[in-house]
Design brief:
With about 450 residues, the chain is α+β, with helices and mostly antiparallel strands. The protein has helices at about 10-40, 45-50, 50-65, 70-75, 85-95, 105-115, 165-175, 185-200, 205-215, 255-275, 310-325, 330-340, 350-360, 365, 380-390, 400-420, 425-435; strands at about 125, 130-135, 135-145, 150-155, 225, 235-240, 245, 280, 290, 295-300, 305-310, 370, 425. The chain is built from 17 helices and 13 strands. The two termini are about 45 Å apart.
């Protein structure tokens, strides 16, 4: 784990960090750009920004700030129809870096603020060194008097208060090199990024959704949802059952049939979320899925990015998937409009390219028998179609926000299936939902 670093807590100090970062990067760009121009090589903002020394500076400072400065990358790089440039995608990847944990004095200050001066009396023991540190909080192991092990997530100080300024400052930083296409109105995405980050910073909200999923999956023996210890929870501290399990990306030694089953269960859970629960955990980060090899249960973590979806949206996606299984372009177009696409005046050629992307994403649903995620060119085909779409810059528009989160989840599950070398009959998993049992 990275060495601890004290986190800037005031709006001014965080602004100063991002301001000095932007200034340092801009200075590097000015010096190297001038050299390049004087030697006859021209001036390229993107190339100048993405020099190794600037990349390193960005990575170090963003990991130090945590919070919105890191989480924004996930939200902006979800799947905006591949409209973001490769350079921006590379830069945003930095915002998902591992964070530095808090030093002990800052950690203790947070614990006293949330639990009071007698915070040590809550447990027989709590490890002050975290076993995980991410963008919004870090996780510690604690022991109850009866020996029960808890995972206690503790939020970094001032994360919630810094969301609006951090997002605005990071966007300003990206605009230095004009990496955000001027034709694309990303303000709805920025507003949603702020709302989503504030939601994820509310640990009481996350505990609520963890309990909801525990209830919804209580009869599904393939899944385990950690128990919530509400007596310890606040908006900035979240205590849950500590569950020992193997990260899903480390399961390559399992029999292939078992890996296939794991991927199939996760995709079936996605269908349940969309068409039965109307509640979806939208963050498909590999770290959110673990597996217990003895019990054969998939353990689900991190419900901060959970979203409720309307019955109308659920029905529209069901129609979209059904049309996708039938290769029905008119049906896909109609369902896409119901979802919220194509509200603006767009060229038919652009709409056709978007429909192509939807149909490509539905290829596993359309396949009779097992779909081979490892050896399929699906991801490459979608990327190439997205690049072709991005060439039509005059037609760019912002996709519906809910759709971005749903597409992010499905794309992440496809990546997990590929990581597990899975072969799955997706069509068979989807058939029960076509009958409309859960609508």
């Amino acid at each position: 784990m990275a060495a601890s670093r004290s986190i800037p807590t005031s709006r001014l100090s965080r602004f100063a960090k991002l301001g000095s970062l932007a200034g340092g990067v801009a200075t590097n760009m000015l010096i190297d750009g001038t050299k390049s121009a004087l030697t006859g090589n021209g001036w390229n903002n993107k190339a100048l920004l993405l020099q190794p020394k600037n990349i390193e500076k960005l990575a170090v400072q963003l990991a130090h700030l945590r919070g919105a400065a890191m989480k924004l990358g996930q939200l902006l790089s979800m799947d905006a129809g591949e409209l973001l440039s490769p350079e921006l995608t590379q830069l945003l990847a930095l915002l998902r870096a591992d964070a530095n944990p808090m030093p002990h004095n800052q950690l203790v200050k947070v614990l006293k603020s949330e639990w009071g001066e007698d915070w040590l009396n809550r447990f027989s023991h709590i490890e002050l060194r975290p076993f995980a540190a991410a963008s919004i909080g870090q996780v510690h192991l604690a022991y109850q008097e009866n020996g029960e092990k808890l995972a206690v997530k503790i939020q970094y100080p001032s994360i919630a208060q810094s969301v609006h300024s951090d997002v605005d400052n990071v966007i300003a930083l990206l605009n230095i090199a004009r990496l955000i296409p001027k034709e694309l109105d990303i303000q709805p995405l920025i507003n949603e990024a702020k709302a989503q980050l504030l939601a994820e910073a509310d640990y009481e909200r996350e505990a609520h959704y963890l309990n909801r999923y525990g209830e919804l999956l209580s009869q599904h023996v393939n899944f385990k949802v950690p128990k919530v210890y509400g007596v310890h929870n606040t908006k900035r501290i979240f205590a849950m059952e500590y569950v020992q399990a193997t990260p899903i990306e480390a399961l390559s030694n399992l029999p292939q049939g078992e890996q296939n089953n794991i991927a199939a269960r996760l995709i079936d859970l996605f269908f349940k979320e969309m068409f039965e629960f109307k509640l979806i955990q939208t963050d498909p980060n590999f770290a959110n899925f673990h597996y217990q090899t003895q019990s054969k249960q998939i353990v689900l973590f991190d419900f901060g990015a959970t979203r409720e979806i309307s019955s109308k949206l659920s029905k529209a996606y069901l129609s979209l998937f059904i049309a996708g299984t039938e290769n029905n372009r008119a049906g896909v177009l109609s369902a896409a409009r119901e979802i919220g696409y194509f509200k603006d005046t767009l060229l038919d050629s652009y709409k056709s390219h978007v429909i192509d992307l939807f149909l490509m994403a539905c290829e596993p649903l359309r396949t009779t028998g097992e779909f081979d995620f490892k050896n399929s060119p699906l991801a490459t085909n979608i990327k190439n179609a997205g690049l072709e779409l991005s060439a039509q810059s005059q037609q760019w528009h912002t996709p519906p926000v809910d759709a971005l989160f749903i597409h992010r989840k499905l794309a992440g599950l496809y990546l997990i299936a590929a990581k597990l070398n899975a072969k799955i009959d997706i069509n068979a998993l989807f058939k029960p939902y076509i009958k409309g049992h859960f609508i």
